[in-house]
Amino acid sequence: MKKCILGLTGSIGTGKSTVSTIFKQQRIPVVDADVGARAVVEPGTIGLKRIEKTFGSSVIAKDGTLDRKALGGIVFSDADKRQHLDRLLADLIYQWIQKEKDQYIAAGADLVVLDIPLLFEAGYDKEVDKVMVVTVTEETQLERLMKREQIKAEVAQAKIVAQLSIAEKVMRADYVIDNNGTKENTEKQVLHWLTKEGFAK
Asked: Binding site, residues?
């Protein structure tokens, strides 16, 4: 049986987590970069020490954990600081993802899914065998993001344009999952891909 590392990505509001959940339900191992991003800044980690050194003790809560709200207040209105934060943690998140992936492969997994929101932006497309992109129309993306985060259209639009466009990601994908319809329709596409590629359980 061939082994495959599948990079799963999308854009904000396209429903990548829905597809990630479908893989998990099919007992396919998923390495979630967002989980890694939280793991590398837990109390006592190098990541948290780097953040404190760079942004000060005001971003550390009384219990020693990262005060995400305080850090968010510093970086989200300043693109340079946000990029600096990304660079501070990039190598730690990379190591975490590789370790998780290697553990699944060592345990005998034929398919491992790397769920990475900024897969192309962070260069992870070079680390995987194939890339699957979850897409919706721009109208649906805007609508879902506004509803999910309870934000106005202009705020949602600013978040969308901060990432590589979904059209660009679709062009660079090996496989595309259309998430405009129902969850059942999305699940059907993922199951079809698993069967076609020989990974159905």
From this structure: 13-18
In the chain, how many domains are there?
2
Radius of gyration of the chain from its Cα atoms, rounded to whole angstroms? 18
pLDDT of 29-45, one tens digit each? 999 999 999 999 999 99
Q: How many whole angstroms separate alpha carbon 94 and alpha carbon 98?
A: 6
Beta strand 30-32 with 4-9 is unpaired
Q: CA–CA separation, 177 vs 186, rounded Å?
A: 7
Strand order in the sheet with 30-32: 30-32, 111-115, 4-9, 130-135, 175-178
Q: Are residues 92 and 158 in the same domain?
A: no
Cα(128)–Cα(114) distance, integer angstroms: 8
Quickly count: other Cβ atoms within 10 Å of residue 73's Cβ.
13
Residues comprising the binding site for ATP? 13-18
- pTM attached to this predicted model: 0.91
